[in-house]
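testing teh design pipeline on a random one, pls ignore if ur not involved
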């Protein structure tokens, strides 16, 4: 941050999230959007009862496990702001 720019005080009653954790949350959101697009039907046949998704269960489980770990890490980084020192 440059010297002339004042940093706004954290709003009271709000959690603070480090920039790195915010980036991880944004990347997790993007990966969830990607998984949703991969799983979406591409034709009317894809939505029939007998249609199968060409993903192995282990690969899908790995994706969800990785996303869960990223979310756990980001949530662990969230902090309640310290009260102002008087």
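output:
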């Amino acid at each position: 941050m440059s010297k002339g720019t004042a940093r706004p005080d954290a709003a009271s009653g709000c959690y603070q999230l480090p920039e790195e954790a915010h980036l991880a949350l944004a990347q997790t959101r993007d990966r969830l959007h990607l998984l949703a697009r991969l799983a979406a039907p591409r034709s009317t046949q894809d939505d029939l009862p007998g249609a199968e998704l060409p993903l192995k269960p282990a690969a899908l489980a790995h994706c969800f496990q990785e996303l869960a770990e990223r979310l756990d890490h980001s949530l662990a980084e969230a902090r309640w702001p310290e009260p102002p020192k008087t």
